[in-house]
Task: structure prediction
Amino acid sequence: MSTAYLIGKPVGHSLSPAMHNAAFAALGLPHTYRALEVDESQLRATLERWRGEDVLGANVTIPHKEAVLKLVDEVDDEARAIGAVNTVARKGTRLVGHNTDKYGFEQAVRSIRGHSVDDSGYPFVMDNVLVLGAGGAARACVLSLLEHKNGVLIANRDRARAQRLAGAMAKFDTYSRGIQVVPWSERGTVVDAVVNATPLGMHGEDPLEGAELPLWVVDLVPTAEETPLVKRARSREYGAVVDGLVMLLHQAARAFGLWTGLEPPLEVMRAALPRPV
Result:
């Protein structure tokens, strides 16, 4: 029996074990998925230990996505472009870093019904989109938005980190729409869409409390109950909202395929979530 892990801190709230263990059971695979809280000081030793253990790989969450990129043996092109690893696959004694966040984000926004503006189903093209956050998930979203010709604004409580993200992503702004860093205090600025890639919402916070919401609201926080931002967006008579569980589902399905080489049982994984998405 092989084990797949979720590593980060904290991880006790995660909905991933239910999804992956349901998928393993549905396909008759003798594997298990466990959440493992790992401090930064333990990160290198944890990955090194996996080389000699019966480990499929791992998902990586806050705050380790950027650090893990430097600790694996190989990094795929997309993870390197994003600058973060959220999935590790073990190949013999080698650890290969991947990033499924961009795929998960794109599948999530394509799930919005009736709002597609291009043949691929991607809803944001030539829009101004505000991304809240500057961590691994934000990096994946910014890259995707730039590839789809959007203007990107970044707001983060640590402004210097937002500026580093903008600098790292500037080379992907091939349509010259621009990347702008805005102060956290001005995150209510008028835009076409907002993407919450911060943890705010995990404990009942609304990262845009008091601000008028744009047409599109994408909240990446995956919680058992709807976040305040999702509830507020859905209470309007206009616009569209993407719930964090949708991105979680699709990035998890891609990780499952990387570990097993099998088609993930998407509907089984969806049914294991705590509410319909």
About this structure: The radius of gyration is 18 Å. The first strand starts at residue 3 and ends at 8.
